[in-house]
Specification:
The protein is an alpha+beta fold and about 160 residues long. The protein has a seven-stranded mixed β-sheet with strand order 1-2-3-4-5-7-6, sandwiched between helices. It contains four helices and seven strands; from the N terminus they run βααβββαβαββ. It is about 30% helix and about 35% strand. Helix 1 (about 15-30) crosses helix 2 (about 40-50). It has helices spanning about 15-30, 40-50, 95-105, 120-130, and strands at about 5-10, 55-60, 60-70, 75-85, 110-115, 130-140, 140-150. It starts with a strand and ends in a 5-residue tail after the last strand.
Length: about 160
Amino acid sequence: MLDITFEKATVDDVKTIIGVKNASFYEDYIKHGESRGYNNPIEGITRTVQNNIVYKIQSHGNMIGYISVTQKSDSDFYLNCLCVVPAYENQGIGQMAMTFLEKQFSQAKHWSLEALADKKRNIYFYQKHGYQITKEYMDGNVKIVLFEKWSNIPV
């Protein structure tokens, strides 16, 4: 049984966060030759932890995932990143993370996030949680979809 916890990250977690992100986004990096989530510099992740709402996803005390949220206003949030290392995928952890976020930010009226257009599992996952694709665009060589969710749309 997985013992999953969500805990606020600190700057002491930055190197571990980079390892988690590298493991999570390596496949995208290999496929596309680039990935926003792969090989981030220590300074960038340190700023993210200092300036955003960042949680580490843990199993038995080991960091196995990462969540970063930007609060744009009292009720508007942007999900910068939700990732789980490949060894822990398909075990319901993403579902737990989304439930956690909805409880933590119950005042949210609007959420947005971006995802790779060719990651069908991720698209299905976010749509299952009430997100709708509102825009598609290219970022370098990679097609991105913008998802949005409003509180008045039933899941």
